[in-house]
């Protein structure tokens, strides 16, 4: 049965009429037209669908939309503010931390949640945290470097506004 | 409250739906700003498949608008390999425009010159020269136009940054866009046009960041499944449990009563369509179907015996000297058989396509490496004229050779025709594994010998099912023969229980693993350092230099293996590029797990167009290669695929990340060679040899899983 579900999406109030057991991934991609969040495995293993809910990285393919009622959802589309790239996005672009780019939104959202919790992670901490995000193109070395760069600069302002 | 509909305004202005138009029509329609139609000189016509050549007319490759924007048209597609950047660099170089002025239109059959597909590291090697020639020819035409404009001889003029200027008075200049404005020019270039030589390069050969990076880090880059046309339906299709299974009965009643679901049944095609993809999937689950699955006759363990039984006779790939003479010379002979399991492509983006029918015209957006062959496939299968079918290729989320069969696009077309609505078919991960055209399981037998002087005297090599690419050795061996049973990667009827196909550097991973393992094995047996042993049998100066450079950079310490250090080396050649990989591994004897601590990839790829892009590919190849070396394999029972998601099919993860070093040795005497594939071919062999150096145990089968290594170590202990 469809219900009215309200939450904050990328800093704005959002209300949709939707069956609460539908997965957030598909609601984002179709009902809300935000296709930056990707499908990769559907079982919570690849991380392509990662979004940030109340500061925590979650797998949107495993998160029923009913579970985000009243929460704050951040997707890749909400990361740049006023046309300014988020430092992480900039770092990914500058470090060539991508090839096909399909895993990239999930990578950035995972990294975002890490830096929110821990603004200066070590290389080991970065690697451990990112373990659940798969990249088939092998962009791993650059991804780690991009995150390390931000960790050193301590430039991630973390939290959603 | 935010109007959520604002999110739905997907921007399709780049993708006109209505008109499927030819490039000529487009040029006519686009009116002003049209360039330079001229016919000569003839471009170095590169024959593609079916005897087709790349066009001679530079207008097929580029357009200059009044505002100075240069559009580059290529049938190649971007799937991560970075040609969106390197092709733009080539055009910018030859045309003398800033890199940022070049806009790429890729894999759109309405605008781009015909192309056989993006694979085989062919983009830079074969499309590249034609594109550069087109750019150089257009620049010459612009110079001639400017010479009329200034009433000065061409020799008094020069070009830079999209302008033609007077050599003596550089402030007097005219922009390309202005030169071509409102004119329709058809001319023959008066002189023969040459592309630039490496010493003249300003854009090529420079490390530049990817031009698609911003789109990709903001989530704006569109992949096929991101397209949503008005009225579009998402389709989920009923799939058999195994290859070869037949649908016996099906009941779709419950699916039909699912709100909003449309069910299509046409023979074996049973699909549910819905405005929401996840709801289409739910409705699909309500279908009751019975399949008849044939009794499995092979599985992932028995497959090799089966394959050998039905193998075709070997075709001669290369030979020299006389094998029998070589065998008589041998003081020691070494025979071994090398195996590798089936491997999946597993791009993180599964296959997807959107199809829409407007009257008798059809537009398809597809995740494909072969837009033009797809256009032909569709025209043939649905009885349409070629010009009524337009294929557009959005960004492709990884291909590796696995996105050429286009099944998903044909499904989307069929369903769009049946429903009369735009339809998206996006495969689930399970479908992606099920329909993958796997890298074939393969067998290599090698019989080789060393004479009393420690030199290789014969080499008898036979590869089955992998294909012949990379099977020819490059060592100095007087008596040798190389045979291939099946020179391609499709096994032929009665061999593989499912489809197989090209996988990044097809055949060469198998061949290089086998050859380099065997070379290493012999070096160890005669107590010679493996690098020294290779150098002793290498006369090719390119490979010698590369191996020496690599050994120096890696800090290779000469000693017969095994040393316990865990060092491994492998050499290979792919797509004209020479590559050496060296790794250092650590083996956990208890668990059989292998950790690659550091890896060096060294490459001689001729002229390197984009060093940064090339390094990215080398790193990517190294990471992806660790997967096929250590964990990746498809398990199956007959036509039933047992590994169908990333839970059991393990690809390389962050924790595997070695310290990766890359070297590109300069070689400007050679045209650019392949870059997207070569550095993967040596990973399996280098890791196998490193495991041997660490443990004294050699594994003859890929992948070298912890279970397999543990078993081999246990065997050694006995
Ligand atoms: S799609 Fe959600 S984790 Fe893979
Ligand atoms: S960049 Fe292609 S999957 Fe990561």
Overview of the molecule:
The complex is a heterodimer of chains A (161) and B (718). With 161 residues, chain A is of the alpha+beta class. Chain A has two domains: 76 residues, Roll (Ubiquitin-like (UB roll)), CATH 3.10.20.30; 67 residues, [2Fe-2S]-binding domain (DNA polymerase, domain 1, Orthogonal Bundle). Helix content of chain A is 32%, strand content 16%. Chain A contains five helices and five strands, in the order E-E-H-E-E-E-H-H-H-H. In chain A, strands 2-1-5-3-4 form a five-stranded mixed beta sheet, sandwiched between helices. In chain A, helix 2 packs across helix 5. The longest helix of chain A is centred in the last third of the chain and has 14 residues. Chain A is globular and about 45 Å long. The C terminus of chain A is likely disordered. Chain B is α+β, with helices and mostly antiparallel strands and 718 residues long. Chain B has three domains: 209 residues, Aldehyde Oxidoreductase, domain 4; 143 residues, Aldehyde Oxidoreductase, domain 4 (2-Layer Sandwich); 313 residues, Aldehyde oxidase/xanthine dehydrogenase, molybdopterin binding domain (Aldehyde Oxidoreductase, domain 4). Chain B contains 18 helices and 27 strands. Chain B has a seven-stranded mixed beta sheet, with helices on both faces. A six-stranded mixed beta sheet of chain B has the order 12-20-19-18-13-27, with helices on both faces. In chain B, helix 10 links the parallel strand 15 and strand 16. In chain B, helix 13 packs parallel to helix 17. The longest helix of chain B has 28 residues. The radius of gyration of chain B is 28 Å and the shape is globular. Chains A and B meet through strand 2, helix 1, helix 2, helix 3 and helix 4 of A and helix 5, helix 7 and helix 16 of B. The structure holds FE2/S2 (inorganic) cluster (2 copies). One FE2/S2 (inorganic) cluster sits at the interface of chains A and B.
């Amino acid at each position: 049965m469809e219900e009215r579900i309200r939450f904050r999406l990328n800093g704005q109030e959002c209300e949709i009429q939707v069956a609460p057991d539908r997965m957030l991934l598909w609601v984002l991609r179709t009902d809300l037209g935000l296709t930056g969040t990707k499908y990769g495995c559907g079982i919570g293993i690849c991380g392509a669908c990662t979004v940030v809910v109340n500061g925590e990285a979650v797998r949107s393919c495993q998160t029923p939309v009913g579970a985000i009622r009243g929460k704050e959802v951040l997707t890749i589309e909400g990361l740049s503010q006023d046309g300014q790239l988020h430092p992480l996005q900039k770092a990914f672009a500058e470090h060539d931390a991508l090839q096909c780019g399909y895993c990239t939104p999930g990578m950035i959202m995972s990294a975002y949640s890490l830096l929110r919790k821990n603004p200066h992670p070590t290389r080991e901490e970065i690697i451990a945290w990112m373990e659940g995000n798969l990249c088939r193109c092998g962009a791993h070395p650059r991804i780690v470097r991009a995150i390390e760069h931000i960790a050193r600069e301590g430039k991630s302002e973390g939290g959603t506004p | 409250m935010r109007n959520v509909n604002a999110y739905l305004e997907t921007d399709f202005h780049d993708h006109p739906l209505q008109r499927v138009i030819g490039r000529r029509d487009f040029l006519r329609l686009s009116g002003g700003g049209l360039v330079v139609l001229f016919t000569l000189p003839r471009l170095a016509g590169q024959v593609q498949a079916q005897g087709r050549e790349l066009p001679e007319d530079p207008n097929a490759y580029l357009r200059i608008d009044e505002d100075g924007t240069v559009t580059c048209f290529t049938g190649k597609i971007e799937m991560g390999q970075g040609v969106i950047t390197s092709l733009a660099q080539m055009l910018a170089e030859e045309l003398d425009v800033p890199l940022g002025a070049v806009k790429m239109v890729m894999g759109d059959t309405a605008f781009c010159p015909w192309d056989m597909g993006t694979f085989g590291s062919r983009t830079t090697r074969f499309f590249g020269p034609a594109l550069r020639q087109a750019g150089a020819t257009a620049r010459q035409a612009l110079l001639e136009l400017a010479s009329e404009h200034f009433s000065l001889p061409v020799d008094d003029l020069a070009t830079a940054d999209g302008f033609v200027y007077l050599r003596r008075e550089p402030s007097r200049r005219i922009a390309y866009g202005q030169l071509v404005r409102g004119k329709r020019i058809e001319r023959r270039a008066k002189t023969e046009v040459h592309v630039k030589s490496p010493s003249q390069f300003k854009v090529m050969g420079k490390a530049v960041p990817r031009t698609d990076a911003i789109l990709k880090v903001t989530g704006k880059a569109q992949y096929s499944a991101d397209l949503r046309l008005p009225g579009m339906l998402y389709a989920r299709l009923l799939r058999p449990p195994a290859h070869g299974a037949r649908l016996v009965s099906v009941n779709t009643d419950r699916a039909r009563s699912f709100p909003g679901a449309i069910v299509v049944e046409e023979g074996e095609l049973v699909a549910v369509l819905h405005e929401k993809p996840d709801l289409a999937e739910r409705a699909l689950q309500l279908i009751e179907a019975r399949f008849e699955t044939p009794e499995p006759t092979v599985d992932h363990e028995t497959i090799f015996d089966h394959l050998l039984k039905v193998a075709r006779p070997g075709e001669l790939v290369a030979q020299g000297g006389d094998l029998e003479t070589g065998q008589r010379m041998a003081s020691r002979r070494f025979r071994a058989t090398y195996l590798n399991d089936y491997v999946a492509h597993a791009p993180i983006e599964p296959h997807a396509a959107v199809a829409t029918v407007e009257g008798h015209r059809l537009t398809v957006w597809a995740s494909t490496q072969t837009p033009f062959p797809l256009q032909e496939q569709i025209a043939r299968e649905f009885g349409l004229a070629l010009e009524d079918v337009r294929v557009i290729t959005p960004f492709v989320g990884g291909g590796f050779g696995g996105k050429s069969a286009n099944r998903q696009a044909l499904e989307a077309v069929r369903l769009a025709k049946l429903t009369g609505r735009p339809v998206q078919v996006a495969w689930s991960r399970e479908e992606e594994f099920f329909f993958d055209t796997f890298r074939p399981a393969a067998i290599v037998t090698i019989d080789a010998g060393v004479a009393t002087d420690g030199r290789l005297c014969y080499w008898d090599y036979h590869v089955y099912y992998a294909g012949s690419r990379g099977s020819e050795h490059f060592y100095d061996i007087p008596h040798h023969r190389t045979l291939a049973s099946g020179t391609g990667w499709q096994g032929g009827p009665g061999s593989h229980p499912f489809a197989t196909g090209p996988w990044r550097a097809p055949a060469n991973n198998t061949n290089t693993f086998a050859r380099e393992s065997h070379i290493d094995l012999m070096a160890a047996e005669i107590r010679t350092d493996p690098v020294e042993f290779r150098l002793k049998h290498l006369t090719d100066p390119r490979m010698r230099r590369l191996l020496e450079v690599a050994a120096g950079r890696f800090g290779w310490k000469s000693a017969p293996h095994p040393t316990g250090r865990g060092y491994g080396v492998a050499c290979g050649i792919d797509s004209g590029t020479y590559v050496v990989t060296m790794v250092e591994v650590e083996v956990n004897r208890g668990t059989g797990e292998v950790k690659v601590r550091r890896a060096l990839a060294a490459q001689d790829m001729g002229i390197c167009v984009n060093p940064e892009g090339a390094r990215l590919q080398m790193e990517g190849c190294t990471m992806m290669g660790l997967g096929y070396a250590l964990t990746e394999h498809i398990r199956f029972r007959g036509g039933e695929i047992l590994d169908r998601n990333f839970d059991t099919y393990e690809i390389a993860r962050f924790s595997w990340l070695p310290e990766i070093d890359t070297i590109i040795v300069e070689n400007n005497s050679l045209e650019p060679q392949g870059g997207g594939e070569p550095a993967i071919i040596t990973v399996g062999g280098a890791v196998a040899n490193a495991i041997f150096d660490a443990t004294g145990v050699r594994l003859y089968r890929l992948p070298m899983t912890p279970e397999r290594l543990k078993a081999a170590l246990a065997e050694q202990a006995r």
